[in-house]
Write a structure and sequence with these properties.
Helix content of chain A: 55-70%
CATH topology of chain A: MetI-like fold
Shape of chain A: globular
Strand content of chain B: 5-15%
CATH class of chain A: Mainly Alpha
Helix content of chain B: 40-55%
Radius of gyration of chain B: 25 Å
CATH architecture of chain A: Orthogonal Bundle
Radius of gyration of chain A: 27 Å
Number of strands of chain B: 11
Number of domains of chain B: 2
Largest sheet of chain A: none
Order of helices and strands of chain A: HHHHHHHHHHHHH
Largest interface: A-B, 42 and 44 residues
Number of helices of chain A: 13
CATH superfamily of the largest domain in chain B: Periplasmic binding protein-like II
CATH class of the largest domain in chain B: Alpha Beta
Strand content of chain A: under 5%
Order of helices and strands of chain B: HEHEHEHHHEEEEHEHHHEHEEHHHHHHH
Structural class of chain B: alpha/beta
Oligomer: heterodimer
Amino acid sequence: MSTTHPGRTSERLSVAPAGKPSRTFEQQNRRLRWLMLTPALGFVGLMIIFPLLFTLNLSFTDAFGAVNSGRRYLGLQNFADALSDNRRFWPALGRTAVFTVGAVALETVFGLAIAMLMRKAFTGARIVRTILMVPLLATPVAIGILWLLILDPTSGIANELLQGIGVPRQEFLGSVSQSLGVLMLIDVWQWTPMMTLLLLAGLSTLPEEPEEAALVDGASAWQRFRFVILPMLSTTLLTALVLRAVDALKTFDILYATKGPGGGSDFEVETLNVYAYGLTFDYQEYGLAAAVLVLFTLGIIGVVVVLRLRSGRTTS
Amino acid sequence: MTSRRTALSRRALLTAAGSAAALTACASGSGAVGPNTPLRVAAANHVWSNALRERLPEFEQVTGRRVSMQILTADQLSSSYNVKLNASAVDLDVMMMRPLQEQLLFARNDWLVDLTDRVADPAFDWADVQDAARARSTTRDRVLSVPVVTERPALYYRKDLLPDGPPQTLEALLEQALSFTDRDAGVYGFVGRGQRAPAVSQWSNILYSFGGDFTTPEGRSGIDTPAARAAYTYYGDLLRRAGPPGATNMSLEQTMPIFAQGKSAFLIDADSVYTNFTDPKISKIIDTVGFGPWPAGPAGSVPYDIPSWSLAISRFSRLQDDAWSFLQWAAGPEKVLEIQTAGIPGARRSAWADPAAVAGFPPELAESMRRNIENGADHDRPEVIQVGRARDIVGRPLVAAILGQDVDAVAADAHEEFTDFLVRDNRQQEA
């Protein structure tokens, strides 16, 4: 509750032994501020900056077998190798894009639809919201194993249900052609609730007057949604899209848990993340793996920048 | 007052930071090894590891050294070694490893202790270890591991379906497997690994029995030869026409339950996992499971006979003498005999010569093992540093065959990739 008068404090602090230059409170406070920041800065430096720089350095070397074994600098050779790899790198990049765009698009549509339905208060809203959160709480590996059991081609319950309604048995995750689609749907099942919650939060902050005015003017429900609500929600929508897209781009655990190393026998779900993991842990090609990761990181930054620029343009 | 409080806070902060740094140094640093420091053993999830874990108190009692045993799946174990050994971690002493998968790489990285002088101890009786297993433990004239488990393939079959015994040829196997397949009823003639890399080791038996190998005698790619193509096509037909749906997503973890639940007439996999079908807790076919020797192909019956698991000592271990005591105990003549008597095949001649140890196996399996040892090839995967990458390349035509794709085209492309790979791998071996 007490307040400190800056001038008076400075006067008090300036009383110092003769011959020594006195330090003001601001000077001392500045030093203390840096001291207080040191643990956080140290943590960021050690856990984020150092690994990034280490990976960047590794990407220019021929590190193989052991990270610390004698390695030579190759310049941009690893990047050239990765970019000229038509067997693994480009198909993996394509799958990363398909998975991200497909999953995030469906999550956005379903998330928005559910958020619109839940926008108005109704009995049991809390229970519904709690149930919606359940997929978010489970770990991706547990979800992967759960869906592996449900979708097992020989003994899974999904095929029993399909057969019950006359649909032929499916291979699901056992099929090289269905796996990526099935995993996208699992991602949609898990992450649509997050989109719903984010958009619901955005919807709750919108003023009601513009929609009421549109209603008075005779706008249909679709017109009110398309021309009134959606433009007002665009900032929230784009923020949610950026968050989810970055997360979807980085998806690894559920792909690895369900399809194993290399993203399946025909590399059918091998995204860039899975490819880089395989290069590191299965092939011990650390230099090439680092180059792939650097390219991947640059790609993610590119996606974020594009989405943010679009977001800025839409807002303005 | 304010100034003093500030100074005090700063001092306190510095003290706290210093203490934290000291604690961190103690936690991660090179604290002295004491009598209470446990011997850390990393092992794969394997029947041998479980058998040994039950016997650990015996070692602890004799040596006075506590043992901390961590059991992981084979893939997790490999990743764990990569992380720990790259970091020169000291919290790893004894390593259970696959010599055919990892030893060349680990030797190249200088991650293993040279055991050449230690195995010369007469009590360890190194000469008692089978020749092929000793050869696999030795890289560039240095003994880097000691074998504990050996494997050959077994043709697991259902005696109730095949009262006249298992097929003697690969051709007959395909015919009989097809005759038992009824997919609508959920019954399959054959089940086997279909995942790209894991399938390679079991497919190697077919490759050899068709007269092929992963490489030619000159060290070039052998996966585009007529024999290799025929072997690819054969296994692809077997799994596609007689196997369960989703075969390309199956490794031992998926195939074992299908056979153990009685849904398949045949299974091909390592003989060391046979207890999974004789254990009433997990198997419905304990009375009907049969074990056949490897069937003959156009080039005869040529199965693999390999040391599948070995023990090694990490170069960064601070308990190397205790680790060697552990190896002496676990891979020595007495323990190998004891564990083999319990049904887990080892690599010592003395154990195989002991009727009591062989009696631990079902008689039909023991006969199958004997015949497979007679004809056995000493590898089940390409002999290279980057085994994982090699298996991925070699496995591509295999997957194409299972999916019914153009095997010749994929084999030609894989051959090209494998040729480039072998050149680079040779360069790494010579480096």
